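Lecture 7 notes: from sequence to structure.

We start with a single chain of 116 residues. Read the sequence below before looking at the structure.
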Amino acid sequence: VGGKEGVLKILKLEGNQGSGNKGANNLTMNQTLEGHSGAVQVVTWNEQYRKLTTSDQFGLIIVWVLHQGQWLEEMINNRNKSVVTDMKWNADGQRICIVYEDGAVIVGGVDTRGGC
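Now the structure, written as tokens:
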């Protein structure tokens, strides 16, 4: 869930197995991620590598990873020139394509260090 002023929350619901309540879920994670100062506008999930990538109204991109039950920043990138309009991981999770409002397109790798 992304919102204003950099608010980003991770919620995990798990089905209640064996209960007579069909559709009942238990909240098993509720973590606020801190790192964005502007409204979170673009979010994409990398299923293969279990990474969450977010971008805010100022163009700041953060790649998040789950480590020992907590979501942590793995990488931060900011071109300081434009904001992100879209970003997607490819099917095998190896590459991310980031599209900026100024027309720039950047392709990064899952193991890219120091910037997408």
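The mean pLDDT is 87. Keep this in mind for problem set 3.
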